[in-house]
## 1
Amino acid sequence: MGRTEMSQEELRRVEVLARVHSKQLRVVDASRLLGLSYRQAKRLWKRYHEEGPASLKHRSAGCTSNHACAPKFRQRVLDLVRKKYGGPVGERFGPTLAAEHLDAEDGLVVNAETLRLWMLEAGQWSRQRKRRKHRRRRERKEHFGELVQMDGSFHPWLEERGAEGCLIDMADDATNTTWAQLGEQETIWAVADGLRAWIEQYGVPSALYVDWKNLYKRPANARERLRGEEPITQFGRMCAKLGIAVIAASSPEAKGRIERMHGTHQDRLVKKLRRKQIGSHEAANVYLRREYLPEHNRRFARAAARPEDYHRRAPRAAELDEIFRLENERTIGNDWVVRYANHYYQLEPQSRHYAPARSKVLVCEGRHGGIRIEYRGRALGWKQIAAPLQPAPRAAAAGARVAVAIAKRKWAPPADHPWREAARRAVQQKALREVARAPLA
């Protein structure tokens, strides 16, 4: 039903025109007070003078809109929403997502806000908003590539069809451009693959906004504090080689945009994966690259405040391979053997760039397990060898074995030991007392 009462603007017109009726104002004064043209004010005054104050109410008040949908169409839409997109609170589609699927799958075009009102009236949609702590909003960056937010979201993305996984999500702060990949855990290789995929597609961003985790940043240990060294992680070293500043957020609210992006994916992506009946991380990543992310960016990405792109040129693939790797320092043994991850690598004789024993080398592990050993920036030849055998315990002397085998006897003093003298005297005195007490024969 439409409104039947006058609006505040209409009541204001009645008040001003009543003053014109009482000769307090002229029509030209009424036009200035109401912000109308003189001709429009004359038309309103004529209607007021002939029909009274009630004539100023809008003629369409209380009537059905000319753009209203037919009742049969509305009922058909609600039946489809209840049948295909309804369900419990955590599974049902929201009005915006339901409107998109009604258009794409059922050929029914309905505005999302109109559908929201219909669903609310039919009891198919409700949302309780929680009050949150007031925080000041951080303004967006002005340029694409100036700041990229990165985070992992653990969620049952595949529901009961597959194992719970972690979605590595990246979003540009200025444009909301998104990239995502689903994996098992938030590991160093998972985030490194995500950053490399972003670089290959868009270029090298200026800064990354991440969590305060040991994966990205860690506190300094005692040795680093004494030396005044800044702690660095494997991921931090990769970013430093690329010239990317790593900024660690101290709370989820500090990177609210990527957290809200997680909520969007947890609603839309889960339902879309359910409709596709995808049950593995590999199939989900193919769907993300081919369908979900392009559609998501077309719908939610926005233009940056400034047109300049702050991404730098992406390095070549060979250069990226040398950047996205694990690097650990090891010491060369006296036999020119380097131990790494419980594996032993025998360094081969070098005609040049000789690495002396007890010196430090850098063991580099690639994405797929390849090993490279470098000394002062130069690669060294090596071959993997078996772990050395543990030495067997040496045989002990026969006498020692016998001595160990024989149990120790309890020590007893000999018969002529001074400790026994007191006992002998006590026995003699007892015998003398017994003889003295005996009666004479």
## 2
Amino acid sequence: MSQDPREKHEKPPQPSQRQEPPGLEAEMDPRPDYGEKSYRGSGKLEGKSAVITGGDSGIGRAVALAFAREGADVLISYLSEESDARETARVVEASGRKCVTVAGDISEEAHCKSIIDRAVKEFGKVDILVNNAAFQMSRDDISEISTEEFDRTIKTNLYAMFWLTKEAVPHMPRGGAVINTSSIQADNPSPELLPYAMTKAAIQNFTGGLAQMLGKEGIRANCVAPGPIWTPLIPATMPEEKVKSFGKNVALGRAGQPAELAPAFVLLASSDASYMSGATVAVTGGKPLI
């Protein structure tokens, strides 16, 4: 009898570890589960094309794989993590779909425009836009947050979402979907993630307004709000002792895996969610968003 893929997540917390930002999935211990052995598609996104920021690793990689196995071609954007991006491209292409990789900094408006231009050139349209890439740093006191770091957080998490959405919408057919990655931090902010948590609340607000703005075009906009998910952002931006205990404060007592988040993105991208817009889908391991 084969093991339920979810059973392997029931294990002791990850050991303490540290990486330099932005972090590499290939260097994490343990490696995150992005669904390569467990995700089974059923044609929910057949013939669709998707743009996914931060698609090289973590949540973005899991979403790219799930979308591909549901029948979509994908473009993944990433900062500079070439080895991780190659792995995402490998699993997408092994699923029989096209994967376009675009490196660069989404905190620059011109680069965001180039991402959408490339997607339109490759696919002729953008059915799904997943604004997933984010920047955070952990600081114990507001005096430790430089203006440069504050600007980088806002430009990566908010400006890029605005620029990419603005460029993508004219190329979205009716039935298109914008999916933004918010966070449990939007409703339950951790003080050490002050700028990051602020941007995640803004993402939810932006999504609610965008859903109303785009409704007449037949385009939906929704959020996914993850709880603690084991991605390269964690060892790259948090102190080692916090990495070791990461995820222990939720009801399920552990960090989630990217593979456990991908189905929420598939739902919001597919016609199964045809009457869902302006919503936030929480995937938090039992920590409520109220």
## 3
Amino acid sequence: MRHIGLQGVVVTPSRKDGGIDVISQGAAAQVKFHATPSGAPDIQALIGAALDFPSKLFYATEYTADAKAVAESRGVALFKMEPFGGVSPANLPALNLAPPPAPRARKWYEGQTLEEQVNRCLRWSDQITQYTQTAKISNSDRRARKQLEQRRAAMVSVSQAMDKLAMLDNPTYKASRRQRLVIEAESLLKGAARSLGILLK
């Protein structure tokens, strides 16, 4: 309730809630975290108990069709609770109360020029190559064989990434295809770094 901007949110005493679990300035809510869907009687009970509150909110794991119909007709905002703590609006009144979605996180390549993206891939390639050539090999034969195999596989990925970057010179490719090639090269280099256990910079 605080997350959607309600003020003065207070949990009511558990034994004397009168059918209301949480109140705030201008809103009352009932919460039912049950294995079975909440039905129309649950919604009607909240409506009766919260007559003095302009906004009525109901939180449950799921709702029956009748419960949704009653809530829609009476303007009760239904929110669905997920097992691991997520809460999402379940009808139009709830959508009207819910805050707008958070801005999408920018991907690393957004706002960069193609040249900057390519240079980043080249830097990663050099870092992976240097590691495979200079990092110590274990004294254990079994461990050493595994390390050498990991390094061979990593260098194959580096070679594939460089092949994709070389394709950027094709004049017939559109900007979207060039962007996709850079992303694919980046994915190959990240995979190589993960297999070697190194952090790319």
## 4
Amino acid sequence: MIKNIVFDVGKVLIDWYPFETMEQLGFSKDVMDTIRKYIFDSGEWSREDEGLMTRDELKDYFASLMPKYKENMRLFYDHATDSIRPRDYVKPLIGKLKSMGYKVYVLSNFGESAMLTGVRMGGINFLEDLDGYLFSYEIHKVKPNPEIYEALYERYELNPEECLFIDDLKENIEGARATGMDGIVFESIEQLHSELISRGIDIRL
């Protein structure tokens, strides 16, 4: 029996538009393409999520990779969370689930600075509505590493068989299932409604 609903954050509860931010900062296409190549397509991008590098350390690292555009890169990093926006269903969805008696948690790959500026202080804070949350930087592990799921169960004394995980990435759902927690690959709020209803959880708002 499902008692706990666990959400990912990015592309499930919030959207992020980094290239919109870059356009607002007046960056050229060449600058944006360079940032995409050396930051977004880099394996180092996840180091902040893992809590292994601070934002300032990453800025210095990326600046060393793109000396021609190092000032643009630093400026982007300082404004990277400006275009984080909550999806309009977030607070009603959490409220509906809680009113139905479910506990609601978040499990997300997020760096500390991004979490603080983009979620907690960004005017879109939904953390206070939750029963708990765990961000990857706290334990230096990212999904789909089984240790991050186990850490959530341990922190809140959860039985994985009583949890349902909602994430936009198939590999993260597979990681959850490997630890005993069922999951739904999120595609849209309408699809999520159907999936939950099929499990006896009618969250239509």
